Structure formats: structure tokens, C-alpha cells
């Protein structure tokens, strides 16, 4: 069994696939050079316990900081009214959460209720599991705090790095590039955060793009792990800092909305929309992906892992396009309504209903 495992691992981590030509794993091992401190693949385990620490920190901050602040500015922690117990309607709801008019008529006749009573029960049942406004405010506060801290730290770390100012430096000397302590912490903390999101997503406010976000988190973690193992952390650090910048304003806009500051929300959301389009559909594809797709092959010899890495970068771009569509949809609705309606990551199964309730 051990021999089979060894064979599978050796096949998967084939040097031909993951490393440039004429390079071996020994060449980029942490102890292979006194001058170059290569990334250590064993360190990829560190983000797992760090994610647990991050989840614990989030719990403490939400309970003892974000929630009290939210309550102090008037955000209520009231839970939605529960639907009356009705086994027949509950069974029908479990089967399908969207009822057609004919089904409502049949249930009303079966239970000797009016159609309006059945519809009211359905509305209450749909809403009873929705989180309170305070819960959503706390979640957004945590994300806003993280993205702000991560962006500031990332920018500070990269400010004196040559590849921030000349992206081709990401490939000069590759794969023999040293991992500095600040880059190490930037990577480990970022991976810990995305691991924590993979866990907390199943307990957080349910979003209409649940699976898209889950794919995003997994793709991000895989990208970071691969870039770490094969020493492509320089381009990875640029991807991180570009992604964090717009997310700050999205979370801040939602915080303002839940706090009742609609004009502030609209202003921040407008900033977010512009920044999102500039970074996710401008800087990301035309600076980063353009470099990895066009410039990098001119500097380093190509190898299979490069195509895997670049494909995952393109997958993130596809997700960006999907979310941009949702953002522009919100913008269009906002212009018609005179204020920001809903949330591009709505907490409702029914987007329109959630938009009205928020």
C-alpha cells in the first residue's frame, strides 16, 4: 500500500509537469541554496490551524465588538416571525420551495384554508430562517476589517518589491527566487482566510451565488498552493493585492446599508463599482493575465504546470465577469429606484424578495 501511494505521488508530482525544463525538486528545495530561500511546500499546512485561529478571532470580534457597535447605532437583532406549525404545508415546502398557483389552490382546498392564508404561511416559512440584520452587519464588518488589513499589509509588503513596478520581474531568475518573511506571512494569512471562508460559508448568511463563491475560494487556494510549490509566489502576491482592493468597499457599502445610511451606502457602492471594473476587468486581465499569457513565455521556458496555473487565473476572470453582470444589474435597478437595491450577493433564495426586505 505504501508503495502504491509512493508511486501515485511520484507520478502526480512529476518534475516534467511542475517544473521548468532541466529543473528538479532538489534544485528548489528549501535547503538547496545558501543564497536563495525557496518556498517550503511543508509550510502549506500552517494555514489550516491559522484558519481555526482566524475563525475564533472572528467569533470574538463579532460578539464583543461588531455586535455592540451595530446595536449602538440602532441595528436590530430581531428574528423573523416563524410560520405556524402545519405538517402538510411543511411537507409540501420541503418538496419544493416555489409553489405554483395551482398547487396553492390545491393545498388551500385540502386544508380548508384560503389561498391568502397559504401564501402568507409560505412567505413566513421562507423568511423564518433568514438571518437578522445585525448578523449580516457583523459578517460584513469582519470581512471589511480583513480586506482592509490585508490590502494595506499587502501593499506595504510589495511596495519595495521590484515586481510591483515591473511585472516582468516575477519571472527573472525563476524558479530560484527567495521568499522573504513578509511575503511568507502575506501568503500564509491569505490562505488561512480563504480556508476559513470554505468552512464559514456553510454557516454564514446563505448567498444566491453560494457555489460560485465556493468555487472561487477553492480555485484561490489551489492557485496559491501551486504558486507556492513551484515558486510562482511573486505573481500570486500581485493577484492577492488586486483582489482585495475592491472588496473593502463592497463590504463597507453593505455595512452602511444595514446601518440605515442609504446615501453613504450609495456613494460607497458607486466607488466599489468603478474600482471593481478597473481592477477585476482592467488591471487583472490586462496587467496580470496579459503578462502570464504573453510576456512570461518570452522570459521563461514553458512547462505543463504553467498552463494549469494560467487556466486557473482565467477561471477567476470568468467568475469576475459573472459578478460584474450582477453588479451592473444592481446599478441598473438602483438608477430606477433612486437608491441601491439589494445586494450582489443576496442572502435570499429569491433575489427580488430579499432586495425589497433590505
From TrEMBL:
Q: Which domain of life is it from?
A: Eukaryota
Q: Name one GO cellular component term.
A: nucleus
Family annotation (SMART domains): TLC
Write down the chemical reaction(s) this protein catalyses.
Answer: sphinganine + octadecanoyl-CoA = N-(octadecanoyl)-sphinganine + CoA + H(+)
Question: What InterPro entries does the record point to?
Answer: HD, Homeodomain-like_sf, Lag1/Lac1-like, TLC-dom
A Gene Ontology BP annotation from the UniProt entry: ceramide biosynthetic process
Q: Name one Pfam family in it.
A: Homeodomain
DNA-binding interval(s): 91-133
Membrane-spanning residues: 184-203, 210-229, 264-287, 307-328
**Domain (TLC): residue spans on this chain:** 135-336
Q: Which UniProt keywords apply?
A: DNA-binding, Endoplasmic reticulum, Homeobox, Lipid metabolism, Membrane, Nucleus, Transferase, Transmembrane, Transmembrane helix
Pathway listed for it is: Sphingolipid metabolism; Lipid metabolism; sphingolipid metabolism
Q: Where is the Homeobox domain?
A: 89-132
Which terms in the Gene Ontology molecular function aspect does this entry carry?
Answer: DNA binding; sphingosine N-acyltransferase activity
Where is the signal peptide, in residue numbers? none
User: What is the recorded membrane topology of this protein?
Assistant: Multi-pass membrane protein
Major localisation: endoplasmic reticulum
The coiled-coil segments of this chain are none
Compartments it resides in: Endoplasmic reticulum membrane; Nucleus
Task: List the PANTHER family hit by this protein, alphabetically.
Answer: LD18904P, LONGEVITY ASSURANCE FACTOR 1 LAG1
Name of the featured protein: Ceramide synthase 6-like
User: Whose protein is this, by species?
Assistant: Asbolus verrucosus (Desert ironclad beetle)
